[in-house]
Amino acid sequence: MKTIDEVEEQTTGEGAPSHEQKTLSRRMFVEAAALAGAGLVTATAMAQSRQESQAGRQGDSPSDPGPENAALLRENPSANTPPFTDHGNPAPIWYSFDLTAKRMQGGGWTHQVTERELPKSKEIAGVNMRLTAGSFRELHWHLADEWAIMLTGKARISIMQPDGKMFIDDIGAGDLWYFPAGFPHSIQGLEGDGCEFLLVFDQGDFSEDDTFLLSEFLAHTPPEVVQKNMGWSRQEWDQLPPTELYIFPSQLPGPLEDDRRFLGKYLETNNKYTFKASSMAPTKKTAGGEVRIVDSSNFPVAQNIASAIVTIKPGGMREMHWHPNVSEWQYWIKGKGRMTVVLTEGKARTMDFNANDVGYVPAMAGHYVENTGTEDIVFLEMFKTAHYQDVSLNQWIARMPDKMAQAHLKLPVSTIRRAPQDKEVLLPE
Ligand code: MN
Ligand code: MN
Fold this sequence. Notes:
The protein is of the alpha+beta class. The chain has twelve helices and 26 strands.
């Protein structure tokens, strides 16, 4: 351990602490040394670090006269100048689709935020995609389950089950779909301005460039085998796309009812692969906002991905809580807010979030989301699980017997019981 004089020696010259700061450090050091002897070193070290953090935010201390990226600082002030309660490095909890390269093709584009951008996000990856009117995301399937929300516009989706029945539906803004792994499916932008949507996969390392494609199955099977399988001639095989189509423009489809009539007895009607979340009543509504929870209990095909669609009013907040089962992957649709994530070993990180940003909360880490803007926040909480679960900090403290609560919080019982006495999800009540 260095003595305080050794520390001071290293910090003489420009930017060295003032005499007052040195005196303060020296006093804290002496106090710490005395308390260390009394076996109180851990508590003191923490107290000292809180004092230091607060001192660093006063007077001239936070000034930053060198170069800066002003636009980035305005967007995310908490990232650069964290609240004094932040501590350590819990790894990235923020990314934005607006920093990721779009793959652009005739008919639309796609980009993704996966484990490559948020290295701790092993359970969920997200893809944001645009299809102009009539354009297709080529018929495909993949290893992950796919959950989706339409952000704007309309699309026609189809999915075939292994039993040969096909489900087909049109979907509008705010509505969802779910495609289990391996089931082949299609998405086509509809009349007007096509669509833009968010896809969520239950694999952190998913890549939108790594899907099984109709075109590639045919292009990479020997033509004589395709001839045997389909009865098509070699000349006809030569006319098939020699490489992937992926996203491509096409003609608008006819009415949905025509496609359903075409399918006849092969139309799937028992399993519903779409969910009209835009017309769903809130699961919980308070003065602070509302939440719609969609998981396998109300959307039975969604066996591996659960969601909470959250609206927070200006000044309101998603209460302090955690999820006891899995990590949380967020997509921000609208508004401006901040979130702190608190992990083990006191690691804590606060970031600001805007539309098109992604947030990540490691499994079981405590967090809140506060509306710091002037309009409603709308964001998605996504989970790799069949059933949504959360634990409310207020509810837990409310259930603690008085003596238990008082022993831990060091507050009078009357103060402790002034907090909300139930899970409110969104505050104020
Ligand atoms: Mn897909
Ligand atoms: Mn949460």
